[in-house]
Amino acid sequence: MASVRVGIGGWDFAPWRETFYPKGTPQKKALEYASRQVTSIEINGTFYRTAKPEHFASWAAQTPDDFVFSVKASRFATNRKVLAEAGESIARFMGSGLDELGGKLGPILWQLAATKQFDPDDLQAFFQLLPTKLGTRKLRHVLDARHPSFLCDEYYQLARKHKIATVITDSPKYPNVTEITGEFVYARLMNARSELDTGYTRAELKQWAAQAHQWQQGAKSGDAYVYFINGAKERAPAAALHLLALL
C-alpha cells in the first residue's frame, strides 16, 4: 500500500534519553521502543562502518511487522573522486547482510560528498553499478547530492532514466532539490531548532504534512519517506511524532 512514512536517523543518540525515551529505558531496548513510535528509521551507522548479517537480523527482529528501514550506504562507495570505480565497495555493502531485513528493507541512501560535482558520464556509470534487485526483492535507491551543480535538468533527466530518487531537504547548507526523480519521494529535514519543543513550529509541520500528501500524489508509487535527521537532532523524535499525528 502507498504510504507516507516518518522517522528519525538512528536510535542511539544520548540526548534522546531526556527528550524521547522513557526514563530508565536500557540501550538494548531503544530500537524496540523507537520503532513503535515512528514508522521508519534511517540506519546511518552503516555509512561509517560495515554491519554484519546478524546485526541486520537483530534489527529486523526487534521491530514491528509493518516497520521499514532505510539504509545509508557505505561512504567507501560514495566519498570518492570517481564514482564509476565504486563497484567493489558497492558489492561489499550490498553483501553485508541487507537481505536479513527481508520485507523491512526500504530505500538505500547513497550520500555524496558536498564537494562532488555533477559529472553526467561518471554518475551514469555509478547508477549502472547499483543493483536493481537483492535476491527477488526490487531495490529502491536514492541519491543525496550535496553540490549545487546537481540543480539542473540534465541531472534530473539522468536520475529519472535510472529511476533514482533524489533527496529533498530544507538544509541551508545543501541544494534544495524539489524535483521528483524516482518512483518515490525521500526527504531529509535538517533545519530543526533547539528552542522549539518540536524542532519546527506547528505551522511549519502542517506545511510539511501538506507537502507529504502532495508528494504522495506526485510519486508513481505513492510512497514518501520523511526523516528528521539533523539541525537540533535532540528535537527530531518530537518533530516526527507531531508530523505523524498531523498525517
UniProtKB/TrEMBL annotation:
Pfam families documented for this protein: DUF72
Top-level division of the source organism's lineage: Bacteria
Database matches in InterPro entries: DUF72 (IPR002763), UPF0759_sf (IPR036520)
Name of the featured protein: DUF72 domain-containing protein
